[in-house]
Amino acid sequence: MPRRHSGGAISAHNRRPRQGLHPLRKPARVPVRSKSRGPQGGGCAMKRTEAQQRAVTTMQKTLCVDAGAGSGKTRVLIDRIIYLIEEQNADLDEIVAITFTDKAAAEMKTRLRQAFRKKAPLDNADGMTRWRDLERRVETARIGTIHSFCGILLREHALHTGADPDFAVMADAEAALLRNETISNTVIQLLDRGDPAAMRAAIEYGASALIREIDGLLARRGALERLASNLPLRDSAALGERWAEIAQREYEARLTKFIQSRDVNDWIDLLRSFDGLCHKASDGREIQRQAILKQLTTIRDNHEIAQLKACIGKIITSPAGHPSSKNWESPETFENIKQILDTIKKRMEDLAWTDPDPAVESHAAQLTCDLFTLLEHAFNAYKAAKAARAALDFDDLIASTWRMLHDNADVRKRVARSIRFLLVDEFQDTDWIQLDIARMLSDESGGPDWFFVGDAKQSIYDFRGAEVEVFQQQRVASRETIPMAQNFRTIPEIIAFVNDLFTRTGMLEAVETEYKTLDSHRPPANEARIAFLIPPKLEEKTSVETYRHDEADLIAWRIEEMCAGPNRVMVGSENEMRPARFGDVAILLRSFSDIHLYEEALRKRSIPFGVVAGKGFYERQEILDLRNLLTVVVDPWNEMALLGFLRGPLACLSDNALAAMRNKGGLAQVFWSDEMPEQFPEADYLLRARSLIGELRDKQDLPLAAFMRHVIEITKHEAILLGQYHGMRKAWNIRKAAGLAEDFARTQPARLMAFVQYLDNLADREIREGDAVVESKDAVTLLTIHKAKGLEFPIVVLADSGRQKGGSRNGFSAFHRDMGLSVRITGNDGETVQPAIYKTMRNASGAKETAEHARVLYVGMTRARDWLLFGGTPKPGKGSWLEKLDGEYGILSRNHGETIETETWKAIVWREAGPSNSSVEKRRDTDRPNMDAIVRQAGPPVWIPPRRTISVSALLNAMAGTKLDDEPSREPHDGFPAMSAMERGTLVHRLFELWTPGASMDIATFLDREAPMRHLREALFADLGAILKRFESSALARRMAAAKRIEREAPFLLRIGGTFIGGILDALIDRSLIVDFKTGRAHPELHERYECQLRIYAAAVQTLLGKMPAGALLYYADLGEECAVDIGPPRIKETLDRAEAVLAHDVEQTGIGQRA
């Protein structure tokens, strides 16, 4: 923004840093309440519920908020931060907010900025300054993930820990590769040395399986470290004794839990319902029913362990005798009672106690100690490998922080006392070490009040070490718990269905003995908003793969129909409705194992889609083409990579050409020779391919990131991909792959050869990596339910709901955070044998997996806003969600188009897919992107001089015949010899920026804060007072006082030719009147310059808002005069044409195009 000239225009350049933004100084606390800006202490105008209000304003040393799905917890966190600042006199730097993901932290910061801006009162200058300063400081606020919080603490206190403060943090993929490489080398070295533990373990399990097992266990190394101090993992005899104690204790606890479950009473009631349905008392099945019913009744009424064991044994051995269906009311009844009795006996077999075999227990204990020894070796080697790179992984950040706080009282005290309020989100997905960090800080004298939010029903990260018990126990230990059960996200019909399913099935009883229902805040839809998409059952031998293919096609058809018909979704917060689009749809999956089926089905119907974080990214064709190119650059004689490169879109040789090369001595031999084979059909293509590889080989010593950018530019790979199906996504994927180079170079030698090997390793190990995010609002999103956590979508499809519940990981060890570590062994007959503790651990793990399986379903269902669809097969797997749904609602027996209806919700069943919808095809044609615009965007960049962005001041200088690089005037101002015209202009500009209609502005306070120049104070006081008095009596001041909206200090970029012009609008009133403040006199030559300036501003406003402002005026502060500027289209065009000519001439004369 040009604010300098010899007459003293207000300058935006080189302003003195404001006191409130000084990095080492906190602004003075000004407890100011906003007027007419929504509820007190909050940044949102919508009225809070009673529970939300309590969550915002309750002050306790430890406070838990049990926040149900969609209950507005993010808003509560934002409002609580504002409440702490406004009512508890807290500074933003004294508040720490821990989020689960970086994305959640970014969203919280964005919403906090918006809330602070809303809080700024228009009638109070001090209050506006306070909230605007807070808005500016949000970017550096202590809001982030636990990993970022720990990383900052470790760097700040590196001297106390001896750590390198410049450590790098490895990404998950990078850490996984380094860990696996280190473990492999460690095991091989130990075997080469003949290490006894390594030899015994490798003989029992094989070296490859041993490496895989250690790799999986090291992911839980924090828990293993704690176990090492509690269990004798180096003494096999002592370990065997401890196992016996633990196994007996856990078995008794398991029996007690079984007795207390609903299963016993349900089975008793179920068996009694068959009373009188058998016409012959001597029937074998009836005798068995009576015997099992008697034992179940004894189990329910007698809790002695010995008696329970005896009853379980009698149920298992109860004979069926000689049953006959003729003795029962019907063959169906006969078959039903058989299935029920078999189910009960199977469950009793799982509960039965088997006396351990001493030989098995002893051998397993020895191998467990051996495994732990190898774990220690691998852990130390991995630690050394990270130290050599000066790098930490994510687990290290937390573990090192815990150790630093635990071992160093001074550091702990200093950190705790720097925080007044600690807020933790998603606490149900934390673990014991994170709990310990929070407790150590909160329990410290002068430590923070601790506020945490969570929902045990949404804890779904056990595979990452999350422990829902942490939240459950801390919720009980808190001074107060506030439940929030009102859902603002989802329509009542879906909420009613969620409540009905989980109340009837008790699937969430592991975290809620009695399911707590949600309440919906939204108005009802009064129609079927739930659907089940199940293809018809075919012949008995039809494969699951075939059914999944049919399910995927059915889902794609239904999505197409919904986005073509009258189906509407809500947008915004005012219940506004619009037709559904593809971008409203999310397909959520438990596993990505068969994602290709859903991609293929969507592709067949030309439905755009994107995949978030799935396997196979490194095997996508566009990434393979890039990998082949890079491999040829570093390994010229790699024939497989060369074949892929030459056949791909970057070289485009045909199969006939490749065959000709092969017949002339081989691909590499011909490619690297200087000669062209005789009668070669595609000589031009081969020459271009040779030239491309030759140039890239010459450039491969560039910095890695620069080399990758050069590759994209020289190959025009993005432009090639844009002409293909899903071209935009493929082009972004190429950019994402190139971006990986920058991450790689942070912790490893940034050589191209190493990077190529890195990409190959990622592909070999199927490291998860999502497609690049394409900036499109009309594509179906495919992602896992875990990735969808914290998100919401108008239309949710829970696909593959018939997939069998996954079991424990396939390995030879079992691990439990309380019971420890154990292995299974191979018996003398070659069969696998499990020690008692191993069975106990696996049973506990199975129960946890079943409970989490239900919670994953709950999370998936509660992502939906307007529509919830289930996809599945007519033969659901055991333990699958669809099996449970069918058991409750009989879905699989329903016909196409049949409805399921209750008092509170209604669902429809779809069994057959139809043809593509013509109206959707029509919409696709009209929505097709402008390919010319895309090619222009993706092609070689438009030439822009190296000064790609210049200020309006520099442009106006050039138009006046002075140099582009002229600096703002620093000549002394006539009335203030010790103060430049620019400095005075800046001060006057700041005065107008803080001026608030109707509020009395204290010039003395203003000068104390903005101009601490004591020797000029008296003169400035008089000068600014006169300027303010003239302004407040002006028509402009009255116009601003009556305005509904004033945007001050609004930055913009305007493109003129190949140059971007940057500036700042002083004020834009009601988005229609541009105002620019000036100091000094209105000299004719300067006035012409100012008119050009405002026409450029008007062009920028038109570009930004899509409409021309109604007017523009200059306000001369020293005169109190207003001057309107002609911003009619002819005058604006004249100014822009002149500016473009001046810029082009300057580029041509100075030759900066060559420097670019």
How far is the N terminus from the C terminus? Answer: 25 Å
Helical content stands at 40-55%
Which structural class should the secondary elements be placed in?
alpha/beta
Mean pLDDT: 83
What is the number of helices? 45
Question: Major sheet: order of its strands?
Answer: 15-16-14-17-22-11-24-23
Net shape: globular
Tally the structural domains: 5
Largest sheet features: 8 strands, mixed
Question: Which descriptors would you attach to this protein?
Answer:
single chain, 1156 residues, Rossmann fold, 5 domains, 6-stranded parallel beta sheet, 45 helices, disordered N terminus, disordered C terminus
Describe this protein's structure.
The chain has 1156 residues and is α/β, with parallel strands linked by helices. It folds into 5 domains: 40-159 and 421-484, Rossmann fold; 171-388, no CATH class; 530-612 and 781-914, Rossmann fold; 617-764, PCRA, domain 4 (Orthogonal Bundle); 949-1154, Lambda Exonuclease, Chain A, CATH 3.90.320. An 8-stranded mixed β-sheet has the order 15-16-14-17-22-11-24-23. Helix 2 crosses helix 3, helix 24 crosses helix 25 (639-647) and helix 29 packs antiparallel against helix 31. The protein is globular and about 115 Å long. The protein starts with 49 loop residues before the first helix and ends with a helix. Residues 1-45, 768-776, 922-929, 933-947, 963-972 and 1148-1156 have low confidence and may be disordered.
Short summary:
With 1156 residues, the chain is α/β, with parallel strands linked by helices.
